[in-house]
Design brief:
Layout lengths: L6 E5 L8 E8 L2 E5 L10 E4 L3 E7 L7 H14 L1
Antiparallel strand pairs: 1-2, 1-5, 2-3, 3-4
Length: 80
């Protein structure tokens, strides 16, 4: 599973399972995810990559705010 910064993923395990998130950074077998609501861009959640599922979508993270991120993820969630 190849994750890049800006990849949209779905959490498969934990209390946030089923939610859409964006990858803000990767670190070995872990990645950092944010959704703009419970996990802000300035304090992302560290998550094992075994517990997420990738989608085909990408988000450009340059100059994005938490509010814009929430809107984009909500639109992607309703499209799938």
């Amino acid at each position: 599973m190849k994750l890049a910064k800006g990849s949209v993923v779905i959490a498969d395990a934990g209390r946030d399972s089923g939610g859409f998130f964006v990858v803000t950074d990767t670190d070995g077998s872990f990645c950092y995810i944010a959704d703009g609501k419970s996990r802000k861009l300035d304090k992302p959640k560290r998550k094992n990559i075994k517990h997420i599922r990738t989608t085909d979508s990408m988000i450009e993270l340059n100059d994005i705010t938490d509010k814009k991120l929430r809107t984009v993820l909500r639109q992607l969630g309703s499209a799938e």
